[in-house]
Amino acid sequence: MVLAKRGLVLGATAFILTTVAVTGAGLHLSQGQILNLSSSPKEVVDEVWQIINRYYVDATFNQQDWRQIRTQYLEASYGNDEEAYTAIREMLETLDDPYTRFMDPEEFEDMQIDTSGSLTGVGIQIAKDEESDRLIVVSPIDDSPAFNAGIIAKDIITKIDGQDTLGMEVNDAVQLIRGERGTEVILTIQRGDREIDFPIVRDRIEIHPVRTRIEETRSGNVAYIRLTQFNANAAQDMREALREFEAMNGPDTVVGYVLDLRSNPGGLLNASVDIARMWLDEGKIVSTHDRRGEVERQVANNTALTDKPLVVMIDGGSASASEIVSAALQDNQRAILIGTESFGKGLVQSVRPLSDGSGLAVTIAEYRTPNGRSITKDKKIKPDVVVELSDEEREELQLNNNRIGTVDDPQFARSLEVLLEQVLTHSGTQLEVMVR
Q1: Domain 3-110 classified CATH 3.30.750.44?
Q2: Which end of the chain has less Cβ packing within 10 Å, N or C?
Q3: pLDDT number for residue 204
């Protein structure tokens, strides 16, 4: 999910449907860096170069001679904006970073969707899959057209309306998948050895980030909380849910919690910190590191709303802010993680407007867990208790989503078992991590 906090953007990937807050930080260049350029297209090329030169997380620029690249692209002639945009994308490709990307004015405008929680489209988050050089589904939005059609996390999109996606960039896929409400797009999906066509009708999508229910057990009530994304309403909705559960007394008392972050692609950094603090009284939550070192650290502040046993469910669609929360709770031994390993996206982007109305998302930092772990494609958050779902089980749950978070959901059923074991040993101050 790509959203901003004081100019910083956390993103699992680029999305077909996303809410983005673009900060007004603007472009700040020292006087000695600016050439006297005569053409507007060339000015935009240099704007992009300057932003990368000043803010990009890797000071080696992927082992590239970045100054030589500037000379190369500023010596070229550009007859129109499109030629300059092509050059910019070529320049950025040398960084080998799929999250640092250029958006032309139309793409940038599309990205600036209001964060009201209401969107129009098919409802999937996608990224570039380096192994196949195609597009991979990070996760579908709950109850979206894509979700209801049966699209699941880790699906590979091989065709869009029959057009092969081999080598296709995320921005180009966005333009093909996006469309008016009521129109249809056909996504061809590679899932294991199968290739399946999914006709999907675009529609308006209402996003409700927090969903709850009570699971009654012989040991007491267990509160199930499903968080589907870290949008502007997530922290307040979570706070209200926890306060309501904690106020329950007598036979309705809640003895423990299952927090479901599966297929949650992330969102606002401050929402992830706020939500982590609802479960942690003390300890580090996350630190942010740019190319100079640590620049920010977020810690718990004695505002936890509960100390009752907690299990967190994650999977391959849990990314970005989801990984911040799950790792913070794991590293501080506050929760047991159950499911499968996370997506692996620990990079921070800044989204910046350019002078001609186009925009640039640039990777400026990475975040690290309390124990100092980087979260990358090769270093994902691993659950304490692994519970795999077969493709058939995932499809069954998605097509019958009323079973998600019930005993008919194998990962929830195992989470419930582990949680109730913790309820029996819970002392009020210490959580014994039991891994089986």
Answers
A1: yes
A2: C
A3: 84
Q: pLDDT tens digits for 343-378?
A: 998 888 888 999 999 999 999 999 999 999 999 878
* pLDDT for the residue numbered 17: 31
- According to DSSP, the residues that pair with 227 across neighbouring strands are 210
- Compute the distance between CA of residue 151 and CA of residue 137 in angstroms, rounded to an integer: 8
Candidate CATH numbers 2.30.42.10, 3.40.50.2300, 2.60.120.620, 2.60.40.2250; the one for domain 122-206: 2.30.42.10
User: What are the b/e assignments for 238-250, b being 16+ CB within 10 Å?
Assistant: bbebbeebeeeee
As a whole number of angstroms, the distance between CA 47 and CA 34 comes to: 9
Quote the pLDDT of residue 110: 67
384 Cα distance to chain centroid: 21
Three-state secondary structure call for residue 313 = strand
pLDDT value of position 119 = 63
DSSP assigned state of 172: H
Low-confidence ranges of the chain (pLDDT < 70): 1-39, 110-119, 427-436
Q: Which CATH class is domain 210-346+368-425?
A: alpha beta
Question: Rounded to whole angstroms, how far apart are CA atoms 75 and 37?
Answer: 11
Strand-pairing partners, residue 296, are: 288
The values of phi and psi at residue 136, to 5°, are -120, 140
Domain spans of the chain, in order of start: 3-110, 122-206, 210-346+368-425
Q: Which residues of 330-357 are buried (b: 16+ CB within 10 A; e: fewer)?
A: bbbebbbbbbbbbbbbbbbbbbbbbebe
Alpha carbon of 411 to those of 68, 202, 314, 390: distances in Å?
52, 30, 9, 11
Whether 320 is a known active-site residue: answer yes
Give how far Cα 201 sits from Cα of 127, 179, 181, 204, Å: 21, 10, 8, 10
The C-alpha torsion from 370 through 374 and 377 to 380, rounded to 10°, is: -30
User: What's the whole-model pTM score?
Assistant: 0.71
CA distance 7 to 26: 10
> Residues 27, 95, 364, CA angle at the centre, nearest 5°?
45
Measured between alpha carbons, how far is 88 from 47 in angstroms, rounded to an integer? Answer: 10
Please, which residues bridge with residue 206 across strands? 118
Catalytic residue among 104, 274, 290, 331: 331
Please indicate whether the domains covering 3-110 and 122-206 agree at the CATH topology level. no
Tell me, what's the pLDDT at 112? 61
Residues β-bridged to residue 127: 136
Q: What is the dihedral of CA 133, 340, 305, 408, to 10 degrees?
A: 120
